Structure to design on (671 residues):
């Protein structure tokens, strides 16, 4: 109610005299104005109250439509908010007290009232009602607080006995009603472990008057369970400031505490995991400063404890260029948010040793996704790296040595082949010698009887006179057969006893010319042409004239036999200097055994346009008695003897097929 505005007073009074009197009392020229309305019956009064806007009721209890003892209660029920002052003619103290207890603000006895008393009574009544209501509201709030707050609220007296507890605490203590806790102590609900500690705290609080704020308490209950609470306790004081007890509020933080314990456990697990791993693990902030690291990493850095590392950066432990490289990697991970996986780093450790690390750096993100640092795990791969390097070196060495090895292998292979061919030649030579000895023996033994038979046939041819003409023919055949056998004997003797060379400085061209004369007849009867292309001024060579002529006759005869009529036989001579390529053993040169690079030689080539020699037979043509000719035409000793003679001269003979057909025989002699 605003004191400046007027007070609306409803006077319920049936007596007009009393009503007038009261109206006069309320006339206040000083300013406090009253608006007085009157109702003469209870019904009228009730109707007016129902409309509202009445600040106070002045009630006469004796009304025509209500028995006096009930009047107050009936009016009060119409609007319990409106204060009522009872105006009674009955000066009965007991009745007055009863009416006040029923809710009347005052009980005034008519006739004892004057203006001042009535105005005071009205004012106080209105104010008292207002205060009472405010108090009731506060009380209601207080009860709401106690009944619905999940936090536990309690009040205790100076002996730490509960005087009032909230519903939440009532439930916690498993009590039916808050009043069940009144007079009890913590000792009735907790084990002494917690109760004694709480009692000590409270005694101290009440002695010092100092509040305990936000204390984490471990509450142990008789059933063995443990709970955690966050408790504040404050001293309760009366108006004079005297401590009359305490009050407190306590929140159950058991789930929070359990979560914290779990977190702690996980942290410990992680810590022991990190510390026991042999890999290096560290965490850095965005400026490259270590936030934590594990034991292996610390040992690697040469640090003793975590505080030697935390807050420092790579520059404190590594050479500037290495530290700069690490920082660049860190920065890239932090700026891009992309992890760096298995980066191989070459590092000089605290003792100056070169180490290899394989490092993975992963950005650390806050729950909002912001990168606030990085975590790195690094593994020492020095051993692997050294092995790799050794392997690489071994591979390189192997690759380098491969060429040597291959060359050595080639040499070995060649040596082996040479050895084989030498062995073969040795065997061949041995064979030839045996054949030679045999041939010489046979030739020697056969030569004399053959001579005697020859002379006998000659004698008989001259002196035998017989009409049988067959005898003459037989003697001619015998003569021819003896001549052939004699040829073979000579061939065998040439082959087996060719050592007696009678060498002089000879012009090769001259020997070629003379040999050509010897085969001229055979050549012509075979219908062949002969071309001589002889280099002029050939230097002389040291040769056995007859033997070399025998060589050319043999070779020319072979060419003539191989070449069909109308064919061409060419004889070339020239001199030349041998080059390295000519005697290159590796290139398969057969001259290598006899000649050296730089040596001068005279060469004769006999080229025919005949059949050539089948490749399969090339290897056999120098073998004794190898011939493709029909019996009587060839003995197969021609090339055997030829080769023998050439080699005795230190020269070489080579027979090959020509691409354009026919064969070429090349003879070479040192000058
Ligand atoms: N120019 C050539 N063309 C083709 N075949 C040849 C030539 N020279 C030699 N031969 C072959 O080589 C074989 C052996 O020749 P070789 O001179 O040793 O014996 P031959 O000529 O058969 O008999 P002979 O002892 O009477 O000379 C020949 O039978 C022939 O088949
Ligand atoms: Mg021959």
């Amino acid at each position: 109610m605003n004191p400046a505005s007027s007070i609306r007073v409803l006077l319920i009074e049936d007596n007009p005299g009393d009503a007038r009197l009261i109206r006069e009392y309320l006339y206040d020229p000083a300013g406090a104005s009253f608006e007085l309305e009157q109702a003469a019956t209870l019904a009228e009064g009730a109707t007016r109250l129902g409309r509202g806007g009445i600040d106070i009721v002045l009630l006469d209890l004796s009304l025509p439509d209500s028995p006096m003892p009930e009047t107050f209660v009936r009016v009060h029920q119409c609007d319990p908010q409106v204060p009522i002052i009872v105006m009674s003619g009955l000066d009965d103290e007991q009745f007055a007290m009863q009416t006040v207890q029923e809710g009347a603000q005052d009980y005034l006895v008519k006739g004892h009232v004057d203006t001042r008393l009535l105005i005071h009574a009205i004012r106080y009544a209105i104010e008292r009602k207002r205060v009472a209501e405010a108090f009731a509201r506060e009380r209601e709030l207080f009860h709401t607080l106690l009944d619905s707050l999940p936090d536990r609220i309690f009040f205790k007296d100076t002996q730490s006995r509960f005087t009032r507890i909230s519903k939440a605490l009532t439930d916690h203590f498993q009590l039916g009603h808050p009043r069940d806790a009144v007079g009890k102590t913590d000792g009735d609900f907790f084990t002494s472990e917690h109760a004694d500690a709480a009692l000590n705290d409270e005694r101290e609080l009440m002695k010092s008057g100092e509040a305990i704020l936000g204390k984490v308490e471990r509450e142990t209950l008789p059933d063995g369970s443990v709970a955690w609470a966050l408790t504040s306790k404050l001293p309760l004081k009366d108006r004079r400031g005297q401590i009359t007890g305490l009050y407190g509020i306590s929140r159950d933080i058991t789930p929070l505490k359990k979560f914290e314990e779990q977190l702690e456990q996980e942290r410990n697990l992680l810590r022991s995991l990190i510390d026991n791993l042999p890999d290096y693990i560290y965490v850095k902030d965005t400026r490259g400063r270590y936030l934590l690291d594990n034991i292996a990493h610390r040992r690697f850095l040469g640090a003793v404890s975590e505080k030697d590392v935390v807050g420092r950066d790579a520059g404190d432990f590594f050479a500037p260029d290495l530290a700069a490289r690490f920082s660049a990697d860190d920065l890239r991970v932090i700026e891009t948010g992309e992890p760096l996986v298995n980066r191989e780093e070459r590092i000089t450790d605290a003792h100056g040793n070169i180490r290899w690390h394989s490092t993975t750096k992963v950005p650390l993100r806050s729950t909002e996704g912001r990168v606030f640092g990085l975590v790195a795990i690094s593994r020492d791969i020095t051993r692997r790296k050294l092995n790799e390097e050794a392997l690489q070196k071994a591979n390189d060495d192997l690759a380098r040595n491969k060429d040597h090895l291959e060359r050595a292998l080639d040499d070995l292979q060649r040596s082996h082949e040479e050895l084989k061919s030498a062995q073969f030649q040795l065997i061949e030579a041995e064979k030839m010698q045996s054949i030679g000895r045999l041939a010489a023996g046979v030739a020697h033994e056969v030569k004399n009887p053959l001579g005697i038979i020859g002379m006998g046939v000659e004698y008989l041819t001259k002196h035998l006179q017989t009409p049988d003409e067959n005898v003459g023919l037989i003697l001619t055949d015998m003569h021819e057969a003896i001549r052939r056998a004699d040829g073979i004997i000579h061939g065998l003797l040439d082959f087996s006893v060719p050592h007696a060379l009678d060498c002089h400085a000879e012009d090769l061209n001259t020997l070629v010319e003379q040999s050509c004369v010897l085969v001229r007849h055979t050549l012509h009867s075979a219908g062949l042409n002969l071309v001589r292309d002889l280099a002029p001024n050939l230097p002389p060579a040291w040769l056995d004239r007859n033997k070399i002529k025998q060589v050319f006759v043999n070779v020319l005869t072979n060419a003539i036999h191989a070449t069909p009529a109308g064919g061409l036989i060419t004889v070339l001579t020239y001199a030349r200097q041998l080059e390295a390529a000519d005697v290159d053993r590796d290139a398969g040169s057969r001259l290598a055994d006899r000649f050296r690079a730089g040596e001068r030689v005279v060469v004769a080539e006999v080229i025919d346009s005949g059949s050539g020699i089948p490749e399969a037979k090339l290897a056999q043509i120098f073998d004794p008695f190898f011939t493709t000719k029909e019996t009587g035409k060839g003995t197969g000793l021609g090339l055997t003897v030829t080769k023998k003679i050439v080699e005795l001269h230190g020269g070489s003979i080579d027979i090959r097929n020509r691409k354009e057909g026919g064969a070429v025989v090349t003879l070479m002699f040192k000058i």
Remarks:
- Residues 554, 557-558, 634, 638 surround magnesium ion (ligand 2) (CB under 6 Å).
- Residues 382-463 form the longest helix (82 residues).
- The longest strand covers residues 226-237.
